[in-house]
Amino acid sequence: MYDFSLSGSTYVLDQAVYAGSYGEHIHTIALVVNKVQKATATKGNGMYTFTNMTAWIKNNEDMVEIVGIDAQGVVRKTYPLSIKDERLLVSDYVLGEDTYQGTFGGAISKVRLWVDGGVKQQAQTSQGTFTFSGLVPDVIKNDRVLLEIVGVNSNYVELARRVVPIVDYHLRLATATYILGSP
Question: Could you tell me which residue ranges the Bacterial Ig domain spans (predicted)?
Answer without folding.
Answer: 90-167
